[in-house]
Amino acid sequence: MMDLVRLRAVDEKAAAELLGYSIKTLQNWRLLRKGPAYLKTAGGRSIRYRIGDLLDYQAAGRVDPEALR
Predict the structure, then answer these.
(1) Are 52 and 37 in contact (CB under 8 A)?
(2) 30 Cβ partners below 8 Å, 6+ apart?
(3) CA quadruple 31, 32, 34, 35: dihedral positive or negative?
(4) pLDDT band per the 50, 70, 90 thresholds, residue 59
(5) Quick one: pLDDT at residue 46?
(6) Its pTM surpasses 0.70
(7) What count of Cα atoms within 13 Å lies in the side-chain half-sphere of residue 69?
């Protein structure tokens, strides 16, 4: 079941809320080719983010202070 949740795609508003950034930040990151992976729907007019990609992006920036000792 967890795999299905990770594959679910959300719009940029939900993605921005999950990551704690603005929609504009996500848009800028796409222009700069940075940030989390995303999907373009047929025709390229809508952007979606898989929940798993958002969680992976968030985890990649995690710093464990205990590991730094």
Answers:
(1) no
(2) 38, 47
(3) negative
(4) very high
(5) 93
(6) yes
(7) 3
Nearest of 63, 61, 31, 67 to residue 47 by alpha carbon: 31
**CATH number for the segment(s) 2-61:** 1.10.10.10
Structure tokens at 29: 């990151």
| The two structure tokens encoding residue 2 | 């967890």
Convert the pLDDT of each residue in 14-46 to its tens digit. Answer: 999 999 999 999 999 999 999 999 999 888 889
Question: In degrees to the nearest 10, what's the CA dihedral of 39, 14, 11, 6?
Answer: 50
